[in-house]
TrEMBL record, chains A, B:
Residues 35-149 form the Aldehyde oxidase/xanthine dehydrogenase a/b hammerhead domain. It comes from Roseomonas alba. The keyword Cell inner membrane does not apply. This is Xanthine dehydrogenase family protein molybdopterin-binding subunit. PANTHER family: ALDEHYDE OXIDASE 1-RELATED, XANTHINE DEHYDROGENASE. SMART domains: Ald_Xan_dh_C (SM01008).
C-alpha cells in the first residue's frame, strides 16, 4: 500500500491546536495487542464457569417432533440441557432497526419451537463442566425432525413461501418522479438482471458470550459484547425481565466485526439466562463451522433493473425490482439492508425519477443482516453495471457517460426525495467530477489503456474498469461523550461507542487532544462498557468518527473553556489571551509565564475546593452532538485485472480506491480501513459465497469451501484519500471512512472483467467465479 | 432489644412523600446475605490468581540485618519473594487526615527497611500458587534481627523514645480561656489519673486484598476495598506511578469495618504492585492472628486531668495532659485520634476555660488509628469520671451536678473556641437536660435506686451509673450523589459512599424514595466502586447519612423537578399542581388522570428524543451537599451492674442508650447500630485488651486471649431514639448514629462499678478486669 501516506508520526509531545487531527499517529490500541495481551472473548474466564454448546438443526426445514436430552443429561459433568420449553418465557429477539410491520412473527426464538428453518438453527443448549464434555453431550441430544421442502430462491413465486414461512411477503417501496412517463419518453431503455451472491463478514475471531451473575451486586454481566452494547443491554434486560441497570455488557478486543458481530443473537440470551438460572458463569465460544452457520449472512440479492435514458445517455429514470434473500428469520436489523439498497441505489447520479420495490423474502438459509457497506455493495454493483450497459448501448465512453450524470458541486447540498434509515437523503457535499479526474490521473488511466492494448496484442486477457460510489455515514440523531481531567492532569474520555478494531480510541483521543490542547497518547479512552456511560450507540453505520468524534470535539471544547475560565482569574489574565498547550494553560503569545497545568486547575475544581461550592465539582463535561442528516462520502474504484485463460481465474493486478471522506483524522487508520474493506469487497467479487445444495444443506462451512482472499490475492492497492468536500454537518467536516473500501469493488472488478473479456455486460453475477469466466471465454472463442 | 421499635415495615408500595423516611423498612442489603450470596473478600477469585503471604517481624524492635529468601524462592510453586529492596521505589504510606508536621518520617513503608518496630511488621511477601504453599514458603524466609529494647509505655519520659524511634515527640495542644486563673480562684480542684486500654475493632471478616491487572484495558483493580475507596485509589495510583483512572477499587460485602478496615495498609499496596509486576491476580486474606497484629489498634491513652470547680460544682476549667500510645508508625490518620480526643473532651458541659496537651507517642506496638467513637470513648470515660469525682468531692448528686453544667437549649447553637478535624466546634442543637430526664425516666432510675438498696441489703454487689456524651458526625465539606431514572422507570443511585454493613443502601434509598415519590425497594444503590463515580468519601466519621443522605435528598429533588417540568406541558398542567406517587406523576388533588410514569418521562428525555436537542439527555441529576460544620448528636448511657464477689466479674444486667440523632431515617437500623456499638463499648469496658509482655511480645493474638463480648455478655439493652433536636445544618435534620452506642459505655459502666463497690472513683482504668475488681473488693473488705 502506498498512496497519500502521511507516515507514522508521534504526536505524543505535540499537543497544541492543529497538531493532533490529521496526523498518522500510532494507535493507542496497539500496546496490549502487540504484546499478546489482547482480551478477546475466549480470553475471558471466571472461576466456576461452565461451557455452553448449542445443538443445531441439521435440516433446512422441518417440523420439530421431539428433542430427547435424556442421554445428554445423564452424562457426568453435564449441568443442564435446555430445549425450547426451558426458555419459553424468553420472547423472540426483536428488531431494533428498520422495523417493518408484519415481520414480527419472523423474529427468531432463542431455541427453535415447533419448526426448524435453517441448518444451524439452535434447538437445544447444553451446559457442562468443560467445553469438550458439552460438545460430547450435545451429540447425545436426539432431535426428531419431520422434513419439509426448503425454499431457497428468494425470487421464486410467492406461493412457494407458504406454509409456515413468510406468508405475507414484504415489499419495501421507495421512489420519486414520474417513472412511467420517463420510460415512455426515453431514447433508450436498458434492462439488466443482476445477482449478488450470499457472503458476509467472517471475522478472524468467532463470536463469544461469557455471562456471569454477581448475586451480591445483583448484576448480570455479558463479556464478549461488541457493536451495540447499550441496545443489547436494554434488550437482554427486557427479555430476561430485569432492570437495564442490573445488566452490563463488556467489549474486549474484537477480532473483526464488519457488521455481523455484536448483534443480539440467541446465544447471547442463552448464556445470560443460564448464568442467572444455573448460578454459574457460562462461557460460549462459537466454532468456525457455527460461525458460518449461525452468524448473520448478507448481500444475497437479485435485481431486475431498467434505466430510461436520453440520447446523450442522461438518466431519465431507474426502475428496480429486487429480491432480498433474508434467510430464515428477521434479525435485529429488520429490513435495514433492503431499505439501504433501495435508498442508496441512485448513487452519485442526477436522477429525475426513480422507483424501487425491494422484496424482502425469507428462505431456509442462515438469517442475513448488515455487512460492511450493506445494500451499497449490492446496488453499486447494480447501478454501475447499468451505467456500463448504457454506455455500451449508446456507444459512449463509460467515463464520459458517468461525467454527464454526476451531480455537480454547484448542486450541493443535493436533496433527493428519498429516505434511508428514516433520514432524508441530502448529499451534503462533494466534487464528484474532480475526484473522478484525480482517480483517473492517479491510476494513470490513459497510459493504462495503452499498456492494456499492448498486452492484449501479446495475447494477455487484461482489462480495466471503474465504478463510482456514494457512501453514507454519520447516522444520527445523537451521540455523547464525557471528558474528565483528573487531579493528576490525566484525561479520561468515556464514550458509548464501540470498537471493532478500527482505531476508535486513537481517533477520539486525537480529536480530544486537538480541541483540549493535550498530547493524545496519555488520554484514556473508555468505551465498550455499559457501566461507564448511560447511553451509547456502539459502532456501526460508519458513524463513530462523525458522531462520537463530533461529540468529543464539543466536550473537549467545553472542558477547555472551563479550564480557561478557572485559570484566568488565578493567572490574572483574560481567558481570551490564554490557550492550552501540552496540558498547560499559558498565554497565546508564547510567553511561558504565568501558567497553570490542567492538573492544578482540576484540583481547583475538586469536590472539596471552596470555589466549587454550589456547583458540580470536577473539570469535566458531557456533550451531545446532534445530526438530522447523514454525511455522504464518495469515491471511485479502479481495477486492472488479468484473466488466466486456462483456469478462468481473475487476478486483480492493480487497484485504486479514491475516497473523499471530508477530513481524515488519522490518514494511516483511514488507509487501513480502506485496505481491509477492499479485501472484503474483493472476496465478494471473486471468491466468497455461501452456497447451499437443493435441500438447503450449506456447502460452505469451512475455509476450504468458503474462500476468503489472502495476501496472495491482494493486489498492489493504492489509496487516494481526498479531503476536498468536508461535510458541512459537523465541526470537523468528517465523513465516515469505514465502508468506502468495500463499496464498489464488485462493480469495478466486474467492469474490468467485461473489459478483459471484450464482452460488455458479460458479468451479471457476483462472485465472478472461474467457471463462469471459463464459459464466457468459451463463448468468445472463435 | 425493645425500645421505640417502630417494627419492621414494608414501604415498598408506599411511595409518596412522607412515607419512606422514618420507617423501619427491611434492608435492601439483605437478600444476598441471607441467601448465602454475600461477596466478602475471600469470595473474590480470579483465574490464574496467586496467593500472598506476609512474613512478619517476630521481635518488637531491632535492626534488620538480613532477610534470606533463598530457600523460600526454591520451593516449587513459589512465584516470587519480595523484601524491601524489591519495593524500594514505593514510598511509605502517607497520611490523609490530621497531618502533623514532623510525623512524616514515621509513616510505614510497605516492607520494613533497616529496622523492625513492632511484632507483626511486614518484612517480606511471598507469592505462590496456593495459600498453603505461600505460608510454607514464608516459614522458610530467614530473618536476622539484632534486638533492641522495646518502648512500651507512651507516658514514659521522652528520652526513652530515642534512638530511631520518635525523636521529636509530638504534642497536640488546644484550649481556650484563662485556665491558670480559673484554677487559682477555684473552690476545689479535682485531679485524676485515668487510663484506657488498647483495644480495637476486630471484625468478623478479616481484611483481604485481591488485586488484578487487566492489561487489555490497562486497569488495575483492587477488590476487598472498604471505607475510603476513592482516596485509596488515588494514593495507590500515586504510589505505584499510575493515573488514578487506571486504578479501580471495589468494595464487596464488608464483615465489619469499625474504622479499622479499609484504610490503606501495606498489604493493599503489596498485592497491587505484585499484580502489576507478576502479571497474575494476587489474593491476600488476612488470618486472625495477623488481624490482631497488623490491623490498626486503637484507644490506648493515659490522661492526667484536673478540674477547677466552684462551690456549686460548676466547671471553671479543665486541664488535661494525655499520652496517646500510637504504636510503631503513623498510619493514614496521622494524629486524628489525638485531635478528636483533645477537641471533644469537654462534651456537653459549659466550660469557661480549657487546656489540653495530647502527647502523640510512638511505641513498639501495632500502629493505632481510629476505632468507632475514636477519641470520644476515651474522653467520655475521662470527663464523666471527672464529673463523678467532682460530685463525690462536693457531695452533690452526680446527676444534679451534670444538670448544673449541661449546655442549655437556649444556648444552642453553642460555639466552643475549639476546632476538631479542622472544623470549628459549634454544638448545632440539643436539649441535653430533656434527654437526661427521658433517660432517667426510661431507665426507671428512682425505682432502680430502691431496688439496688434492697438487693444490697440481701448481700448483692449491685450498682448503677450513668454518663452523658456528645458525639460528632457529618464531617464536610462535601458529598455528591447521582440519581438516574432509566427508560423502564428504574431508579439508580450512584454514590461515592461505602458501606461497612450499616445499611447505607437502604437509608439512601429511603431518602431518595421520599424525595422522588417512588418505592424505596426498587432503587438500585451503587456505591463502593470507584469506576461509577469520580469522587467519593467512603464511610467514616458517622458522615454517610448526613452528607450522602443530604446529597441524595438534593439530587432526588432535582430529578423530581426535572420530571415535573417535563411532564407538565405534556399533561397540559402546571408543575405546581403535580406530585409524584409510586413513580407516577399525577395531580396533587388525588385525581388519577391525567398521569405519566417516570418511565415515560425518562423516554421523553432519552438521547434520541428531539426534546433533548442541545441538552444533556437523561432523567438524571448529580447534586453535591456542602457543610462547614459537623453535627453533634448526644446521649445518655445508663448501666446497672452486678459484681460477682467470688470472681470479680462484672455483669451488666440492664443498659440503656438514649441517643438524640435529630432524625432517624430508619429506626430499626439506628437501633442495630446502637446495639452493635454498645457491644463494642462493652468489650472495651470489661473484656478487650491488647496486652504485651515486657519485651513487646503481644499476648492477645487469639480470641482465647482477646475477649470480645458474646451473646452471653450482652445485657437486656434498651434503646431510646430521640429526635428532639434535628440538626439545622442539613435538610432532613440528620445527625449520625454510628458511634453513640459505643461512646459512653466505659464511662457508664465505670460509674456503676464504683456504685456497686461503694467506692466512688475506684475505677480509673479500662477495661475493668476481674483481677482489679477483686483487689477493690478486698480493699473494701472489713
Amino acid at each position: 500500500m502506498d498512496g497519500t501516506t502521511h507516515g507514522p508520526d508521534d504526536a505524543r509531545m505535540a499537543a497544541g491546536p492543529g497538531e493532533a487531527v490529521g496526523r498518522a499517529v500510532t494507535r493507542l490500541e496497539d500496546p496490549p495487542l502487540v504484546r499478546g495481551r489482547g482480551l478477546f472473548a475466549a480470553d475471558v474466564n471466571f472461576p466456576r464457569q461452565i461451557h455452553m454448546r448449542v445443538v443445531r438443526a441439521e435440516l433446512a426445514h422441518g417440523l420439530l417432533r421431539s428433542v430427547d436430552a435424556t442421554a445428554a443429561r445423564a452424562l457426568p459433568g453435564v449441568v443442564a440441557v435446555w430445549t425450547s420449553a426451558d426458555v419459553a418465557e424468553i420472547p423472540s429477539i426483536p428488531f431494533r432497526a428498520t422495523k417493518v410491520q408484519g415481520l414480527e412473527p419472523y423474529c427468531q426464538p432463542v431455541l427453535a419451537r415447533d419448526r426448524v428453518r435453517y441448518v444451524g438453527e439452535p434447538i437445544a443448549a447444553v451446559f457442562a463442566e468443560d467445553a469438550y464434555l458439552a460438545e460430547d453431550a450435545a451429540d447425545l441430544v436426539a432431535v426428531d425432525i419431520e422434513p419439509l421442502p426448503a425454499v431457497l430462491d428468494a425470487a421464486a413465486p410467492p406461493a412457494e413461501f407458504a406454509p409456515g414461512l413468510h406468508t405475507e411477503p414484504t415489499i419495501v417501496r421507495k421512489g420519486f418522479g414520474d417513472v412511467d412517463a420517463a420510460f415512455a419518453m426515453a431514447h433508450a431503455v436498458i434492462e439488466l438482471d443482476l445477482s449478488v451472491g450470499r457472503h458476509s463478514g467472517v471475522p478472524l475471531e468467532t463470536r463469544g458470550a461469557i455471562a456471569r451473575y454477581d448475586a451480591a451486586r445483583d448484576l448480570l454481566e455479558l463479556h464478549g459484547a461488541a457493536k451495540k452494547q447499550h441496545w443489547n443491554r436494554d434488550e437482554i434486560a427486557r427479555l430476561l425481565g430485569r432492570p437495564p441497570s442490573s445488566v452490563h455488557l463488556f467489549e474486549g478486543h474484537v477480532g473483526g466485526g464488519f457488521g455481523v458481530r455484536g448483534e443480539l443473537y440467541p446465544e447471547d440470551l442463552l448464556a445470560c439466562a443460564a448464568a442467572l438460572r444455573l448460578d454459574r458463569p457460562v462461557k460460549w465460544i462459537e466454532d468456525r463451522r457455527e460461525n458460518f452457520l449461525a452468524t448473520n449472512h448478507s448481500r444475497q440479492q437479485r435485481h431486475r433493473i431498467r434505466a430510461a435514458v436520453d440520447a446523450e445517455g442522461r438518466l431519465l429514470a431507474i426502475d428496480d425490482v429486487f429480491f432480498h434473500d433474508q434467510g430464515a428469520y428477521v434479525r435485529t436489523h429488520g429490513a435495514r439492508v433492503v431499505d439501504l439498497a433501495a435508498g442508496m441505489l441512485p448513487g452519485p447520479y442526477r436522477l429525475p425519477a426513480y422507483r424501487v420495490a425491494g422484496h424482502f423474502r425469507l428462505t431456509n438459509k442462515t438469517p442475513a443482516a448488515t455487512y460492511r457497506a450493506p445494500g451499497r455493495y449490492e446496488t453499486t454493483f447494480v447501478r454501475e453495471r447499468l451505467m456500463d450497459a448504457i454506455a455500451t448501448r449508446l456507444a459512449i465512453d463509460p467515463i464520459e457517460l458517468r461525467r454527464r450524470n454526476l451531480v455537480a458541486t454547484a448542486e450541493m447540498p443535493y436533496p433527493r426525495p428519498l429516505d434511508v434509515l428514516g433520514s432524508d437523503v441530502v448529499l451534503d457535499s462533494g466534487d464528484y467530477a474532480k475526484l473522478l479526474d484525480q482517480a483517473l490521473d492517479r491510476f494513470g488511466w490513459k497510459a493504462l489503456r495503452e499498456s492494456i492494448a499492448a498486452r492484449r496484442a501479446s495475447g494477455e486477457c487484461v482489462g480495466a474498469g471503474l465504478a463510482f460510489f456514494v457512501e453514507k455515514s454519520g447516522l444520527g440523531p445523537s451521540d455523547g461523550v464525557r471528558i474528565t481531567v483528573d487531579h493528576t492532569g490525566t484525561v479520561e474520555l468515556v464514550s458509548g461507542a464501540a470498537s471493532v478494531g478500527q482505531g476508535v480510541d486513537t481517533v477520539l483521543a486525537q480529536i480530544c487532544a486537538e480541541a483540549l490542547g493535550v498530547g493524545y497518547s496519555g488520554i484514556r479512552v473508555v468505551r465498550g462498557r455499559t457501566d461507564r456511560i448511560e447511553f451509547g450507540n456502539g459502532a456501526h453505520a460508519s458513524r463513530v468518527t462523525v458522531m462520537s468524534g463530533s461529540a468529543t470535539w464539543q466536550a473537549a471544547q467545553a472542558v477547555r473553556a472551563m479550564a480557561l475560565e478557572t485559570a484566568a482569574p488565578l493567572l490574572q489574565l483574560s481567558p481570551e489571551v490564554l490557550t492550552i498547550r501540552d496540558g498547560i494553560v499559558q498565554r497565546k503569545d508564547g510567553a511561558t509565564e504565568p501558567s497553570m497545568t490542567l492538573a492544578e486547575i482540576a484540583r481547583q475544581m475538586g469536590p472539596n475546593s471552596p470555589a466549587m461550592r454550589g456547583r458540580t465539582p470536577g473539570l469535566t463535561a458531557e456533550k451531545w452532538f446532534w445530526s438530522d442528516h447523514m454525511t455522504y462520502p464518495y469515491g471511485v474504484h479502479c481495477a486492472l485485472v488479468c484473466i488466466d485463460r486456462g483456469t478462468g481465474a481473475v487476478k486483480v493486478e492493480r487497484y485504486l480506491v479514491a475516497n473523499d471522506i471530508g477530513r481524515a483524522i488519522n490518514p494511516m487508520l483511514v488507509e487501513g480501513q480502506i485496505a481491509g474493506g477492499f479485501a472484503q469487497g474483493l472476496g465478494g467479487a471473486l471468491y466468497e459465497e455461501f452456497r447451499y445444495d437443493e435441500t438447503g444443506q450449506p456447502l460452505s462451512t469451512t475455509f476450504a469451501d468458503y474462500l476468503i482472499p489472502t495476501a496472495t490475492e491482494m493486489p498492489a492497492l493504492d489509496v487516494l484519500i481526498a479531503e476536498d468536500a468536508p461535510s458541512p454537518l459537523n465541526p470537523l467536516g468528517i465523513k465516515g471512512a469505514g465502508e468506502g473500501g468495500t463499496n464498489a469493488v464488485g462493480a469495478a472488478i466486474a467492469a474490468a472483467v467485461d473489459d478483459a473479456l471484450g464482452q460488455p455486460g458479460a458479468v451479471t453475477t457476483l462472485p465472478i467465479l472461474p467457471g463462469t469466466v471459463m464459459r464466457l471465454l468459451d463463448r468468445a472463442a472463435p
